[in-house]
Amino acid sequence: MTPPLPPELPAILVVDDEIRSQEALRRTLEEDFEVFTASTAEDALTVLEREWIRIVLCDQRMPGTSGVALLRQVRERWPDAIRIIISGYTDSEDIIAGINEAGIYQYLLKPWQPEQLLLTLKSAAEAARLHADNQRLAMELRTAGPVLEKQVHSRRESVRQRFALDAVLRAPDSPMNAVCALIRKLAALDIPVLLTGESGTGKELLARALHYDSPRASEAFVVENCGALPDQLLESELFGHKRGAFTGAFEDRIGLFKQADGGTMLLDEIGETSAAFQVKLLRVLQEGEMRPVGASRPLPVDVRVIAATNRDLETEVREGRFREDLYYRLAALTVTVPPLRERPMDIPLIAAALVEETQQALGRRFAPLSREVITCLQAWRWPGNVRELRNEVLRMIALADGDELAAAHLSPRVLRAAEEAEEHALSAASGNPLGPLSGDLKTRLETLEARIVRECLIRHRWNKTQAARELGLSRVGLRSKLTRYGLDRD
């Protein structure tokens, strides 16, 4: 017969042939346990077959079968039940022999004290609960093993696809295509690579793509910004340290190089490191081993190192600020990442991706970027590269009144750059007065007026009514100026 599900209170079976003793134990335990009683071994076995018993508390001296003999049977048939013997005889050979044979959890002496008895039984109930939880977890892990393995593999593939070279945003005519083609070739070669380029151009993104397209893709990819920490902390972070190596080293620490063992390490801003640290880093690259701070022996490491910098390391070497031997260890091959101003064709793709990323985080939807916004973004030179572009996207989203992202919400410097680019194009094509300020006073005033009118129109997304109101003109007057300055073509 299958016993019912476990009760909310842990169930305890009290086996004692003395009724008065049974009742005393029931009164003591009934607030914390669901109490069942039996006067003989046969009755006890019947209860065990019918109920989900977590603890068996058994008197040793009973007619017919002793407590130890009963608990031997309990161990064989219900091994998960906690077995406790209670007796008034301290030298009983049966009890001593049965502690191991019957798997007795606790041996209690009469007369028992209620507080001590409750404490012992509560501890036994917790031990039983933990044992049941461990068994259930082990069973779940056995049955879920293939599922978990499949989920881990799926997650690894998802990360690999997200950071693969094919995921790097670039237009068909982008100079990034040549960079990605080179990265693809280098991925299969287990050699150090140096990534150079301005800050914010995506060097870390390319380093991840290189790692996830390489044979080391299943291992760790670890990043450390070498310019963010002083030498001692950087050495501890990368190489680890032993307990007591310096003030505050309260325990051993595994360094990032050891965490990346078998995988790839990106050392960002490598040009910011000191000469003393460069010597220690050189040993790791030359010998394939590192020494944690305070350790007596070096540890072997197998890590592919990718270095990144926005400095010209060849100049740094010539001027004595960077070790020449370390430079040649890091730069088996150098990849230069072009700045955003040299690839304006990529700006629409990157800006759209930034909008998608932000709207997912905010739980809002926005209309696709208009041609006007894209034209303004492509006109700016982006000294801060993709980081600066992200800020402009966030600015438009923060100032948006509805679901449209307007050019009027771009920074003034971006709007001026778009205006100047348009003026230059029109001036070169037809000598339009939107060109540079030159000529007599009347011509220069007209040029300034045309610029003011166009900038106002851009801010109001070419809403002529709003622009005319701001400029203090009628719609007819504004339309006349647009025709005069050739702005009606916009």
TrEMBL record:
Key words, A-Z:
ATP-binding, DNA-binding, Nucleotide-binding, Phosphoprotein, Transcription, Transcription regulation
Which one GO biological process term can you cite for this protein? regulation of DNA-templated transcription
Q: Which domain of life is it from?
A: Bacteria
Q: Where do the Response regulatory domain residues begin and end? A: 11-125
Task: Recall the GO molecular function terms of this protein's record.
Answer: ATP binding; sequence-specific DNA binding
Q: What CDD domains is this protein classified in?
A: AAA (cd00009), REC_HupR (cd17596)
| SMART domains per UniProt | AAA, REC
4-aspartylphosphate, modified sites: D59
- Tell me the ranges covered by the Sigma-54 factor interaction domain, including all copies: 169-398
| PANTHER family assigned | PTS-DEPENDENT DIHYDROXYACETONE KINASE OPERON REGULATORY PROTEIN-RELATED, TRANSCRIPTIONAL REGULATORY PROTEIN
What protein name applies here? Sigma-54-dependent Fis family transcriptional regulator
Q: Which organism is it from?
A: Parazoarcus communis SWub3 = DSM 12120
